[in-house]
């Protein structure tokens, strides 16, 4: 059973000012997402599911889906603020959807196999898709066994400023025991350091695993998400900024010993356009990977 790749793209229209602005950063104007899907197909993923907003469905089909549908089966699902359980209605002032885990929940009617979750605008690297595909394929019909690709923090920094990362805590068997969100991480005097609330900087090892929102789940995760979302809404229904994030659910499932989450190590170097100043560096890195023959040109 081949795993499915689930791409979180509902924020794409707002972040890029419309799909027309989808940034072509590769040598032939490829997007970062093109590279992720190329790597995923070659790693053994068997289906693509995109979660998007309904208001750019036609444009997305024209500009994005057409590119991939002859290479791999593609499904679209939709995330909107009013996608809520029975008995709940969104605050009329709320304009944004409910966060990454709410986006994942939109896939439950089209995903019946182990699946990976990624962001549309992060470059993850081919090794990451390979370790993820291999692990998910091995799960088959298992339940309560999930995984996360743990990037080495030193491979995820921006030269243009601080980054926010979920710093992972693991046991001796590389099982995830917790994720702590650190909102300011950068290299200081050669050492990776994060900013504490008291104003001090704490250094950590370059190889410390961090979450880049690259997860692997089995379909039972949808059931847990539905249950947790009701609890979340009971507390946050009227908070127009509250977001239902993946680590929130995963942490709770781990703490309550309901699931096991394996942290998969990757040597891949993550990159993305966190700051506008990052763009030239991303363009240069993709050109270098193409010149080295790691990617064909054009990609598709």
Structure description:
This protein is of the alpha/beta class and 300 residues long. It has one domain: Spore Coat Polysaccharide Biosynthesis Protein SpsA, Chain A (Alpha-Beta Complex). It is 30% helix and 26% strand. It contains 8 helices and 13 strands. It has helices at 12-16, 32-43, 57-68, 100-105, 126-139, 220-236, 246-255, 279-291, and strands at 4-8, 47-52, 74-78, 115-119, 122-123, 145-152, 163-170, 176-188, 191-195, 201-204, 209-217, 260-266, 271-272. The strands form 2 sheets. Strands 1, 2, 3, 4, 6, 7, 8, 9, 10, 11 and 12 form an 11-stranded mixed sheet that branches. Helix 2 crosses helix 5.
Q: Please tally the helical runs, counting DSSP H or I stretches of 4 or more residues.
A: 8
* Mean of all residue-level pLDDT scores: 92
Order of helices and strands: EHHEHEHEEHEEEEEEHHEEH
State the shape. globular
* Number of spatially distinct domains: 1
CATH architecture heading:
Alpha-Beta Complex
The CATH class name reads Alpha Beta
What CATH calls the topology is Spore Coat Polysaccharide Biosynthesis Protein SpsA, Chain A
Oligomer: single chain
Beta-strand content estimate: 25-35%
Helical coverage, percent range: 25-40%
